[in-house]
Here is the input.
Amino acid sequence: MPKEYPKERIKVPRFNEESGFYTTPERSKIMGKIRGKNTKPELAFRKALWQSGYRYRIDYKKLIGRPDIALKKYKTVVFIDGEFWHGHNWEERRHKIKSNREFWIPKIERNIQRDREVNQALKEEGYKVFRFWETEVKKDLDECLEQVLTHLNEVKAAFSQS
Here is the structure.
């Protein structure tokens, strides 16, 4: 990832009592159950991709951003992002955050900024980046899969011609 950022990096305050953020044990328990990987939409997408005959790496640590699905042979990566964490409809939704706004707004805005940085870095390495929202995958898995398969088939055709 480039050392220089196009914009000033968003500073996210630490989420602790010293910084003025409080959480209840119940909220803590709920937040602890949120998955970061192997979510249902991710598993459904991976299963469909596998059945289409493509093999991949999951949460591939050797690439920046740890893509959910990486097809190194085809220089293709897929991210399946959660709506809250990655700021889907952010301009509309940011006003609906009621508690701990001083933490959550910079946190999500930094996530959005980091997603853009990761996309740019992967494109500079020659990767094709696909980003889908979880609800997009849940509601229309076939359409999301078709976008990726179309690209993979084009790359495969280019391999066979050379």
